[in-house]
Predict the 3D structure of the following.
Amino acid sequence: MKTRVKWGIALRLGVLLASFSVFAAILAGYYTFDSSRERLQGRAEQALLATTHVLARHMQAGFGTVARDTAFLASVAASEQDKSALAEVFKASLLTHPSYLQIRFIGVQDYGLEQVRMDRKGDAWIRASEDELQEKAHFPFVFETLALAPGEVYVSEFGINHESAADAEAIPVFSMASPVVRGGQVRGVVVLRVAAQPFLRDFNTALPVPYGFYLSNRWGDFLVHPDADQAFGFDRGQRILIQESFAPVAALIDGRQEEVVLGQPGTEDEEARVFSFVRMPYGREDEGRFMVVGLSQPLAAVQGEVVSLGNSILKILLVLSVVGVVLAALVSRAVTQPLKAILQATQAVTLGRAHATLPVHRNDEVGELARSFQDMEQQIHRQMTELNASRDAMAHLAHHDALTGLPNRRMFEQ
C-alpha cells in the first residue's frame, strides 16, 4: 500500500519561498556574471590595445633614434673630410648598435660612388677597400635623399637585402639616409642600413610568451609574423597580406580607422585568440606613410579573470541559496505556527478539551482570526451554558408539580 506524502501548508509555503529565493539568487548571479564578463573582457581587450599602442610608440622612438644617428653621421661627414677618421666614426657607431649592418658615405660624383663604407661581418667590422666601392646613384636612398634639406632623413621601406656589399645573407633590412652638405652644397649622402630582425627584437622580446607580434607595411604585406614563412612573401613572388588574414584590418590600410580589436575562434591546431592592431606613422610626416603594428593574446588568457569571477559568483550563489532555504523555513514556521495553534484549538474545542493560548496579541490577519475564533468560542460556551440550563429546567418541570414543586407521578413511576 502506497503512502502519500502530506503536503501541509508549512511545507508548501517553505518550498515555494525557498524556490523563489534560489531562483532570485541564480537570476541575479547570472546577470551579474554576464555583465561583469563583458566588462572584464572589454577591459582585457582595451589593455591589449593599450599595450599595442605602447609598443607602437616604442617602435617610433626606435626609428627616431636611428634617424637621429643618421643625421648626426651626415653632419660628421660634412665636417670631416678625412676618410679614415670618418671610417672610425662609422665603426664606433656599428660597435655601439648591434642592429646596424652597414654605414656608408656616398658622394654625388662618379654616379654616386661610395667614398667610405663600413660593413658588419659577424662580430667584425670591415672597411671596404677602394676596389670594393660601388656606384649607388640609381638607388632611391641616394637620389631621393639628395633632394632633401639638410638634417632631413630618408626612410626606406622594409625589404630583403640583396646587395653584395653588405653581409651576403639575404636578411630583412631597412635604410635611412641624410644629405651631406658642405659649404652650402650637397656633397653626398650618408646611408645607414639596419638589420630588421635584431632591431625589432629589442621591442618584442619584452613581451610575455603568450603574445604574438605582427607588423606590416602600408600595403599590408607581412614584415613580422609568428610564423616566419608568412613574412616578406613579396620577396618570394607572393603577396601575403594582413587584411586577408584579418579582414577588419583593411580599415587601417584604407585609413578609415586608427585601431582595431578583433577575435578569432580556435581550430584543432590553434587556440582562440584576441588581436589588436594600430596604425603607426612611419617615415617623414609629409609622406603620410605608415605601418600596421599588431599583438595577439590567447582568448583563455583574456578570459582568465572571467573564469575566476564565475567561480566566485558560484560560491556566492551557493551561500545565498542556503541562506534563502533557511530563511524560507524560518518564515514558513513563523507564518504557519499560529495557524497550527488555531487548528489545535479548534480540535480541542470539538472534543471539549482545553487548549493553549491563542495568538490574539498579533496585529495582523492571523491575530484577527485568533480573536474571532476566541469570540466564537466564548459565544458557543455561553450558548451551551444557556442550553444546558434550559434543558435542566425542562427536566425539572417534567418530573415535578408546577404548583407545589413536589415530584409528580412520572417521577414516581421512574
Remarks:
- The first strand starts at residue 100 and ends at 107.
- Residues 120 and 396 are 142 Å apart (CA to CA).
